[in-house]
Amino acid sequence: PLELNDGTVSMEYVPEFKFNVETGALVVPQVQLISGDAVVTAQRSSAEHPPEQGGDGSYATYWESSDRTLPVSVNVDLTQGQPIGRVDISWRGIGGSEAYYQYKLYGSIDNVTFTELVDRSTNEDLGFTSDRVTPSDTTPYRYLRIVISRFVNFTNGNAPGYNPGLYEIKV
Length: 171
Prior knowledge:
Blueprint: E1 2-5, E2 8-11, E3 18-19, E4 26-27, E5 39-42, E6 63-64, E7 72-82, E8 86-91, E9 99-108, E10 115-120, E11 128-132, E12 141-153, E13 165-170
Antiparallel strand pairs: 1-2, 3-4, 5-7, 6-13, 7-12, 8-11, 8-13, 9-10, 9-12
């Protein structure tokens, strides 16, 4: 649903909702954001766009790798273990040079042994991805790792002319 606030439009993504035809009400499931106090780190970062900007709640800031060397990983410490329902990532793009990012998402309870949760190594969705973690997986993951293996400018199939990055990670 869209929200208007002092001339600013915002929208919180939900993967599904219901519409009550009798009342005309939009029924949106309640989702708990568990990454609000998360600590975001990265394998490499530019000085101007450090990893904590990838989880600060602002789409005006972003994390950017210090170079285009791949793979590169972004790590999220949720500060306590809990089951993961969904991971939403808003990927960086510049002025129409939109890219799709190919990656894998891993979870860990101890920051040593990681389990693959999501394989997006063939992803071609632009700008935003939303990944459900298997509902039967109730492992209390504290740590998440996003390993970016490739990012591609969708207009020409080449690597973009900028370093990989992301605006926000929401868990």
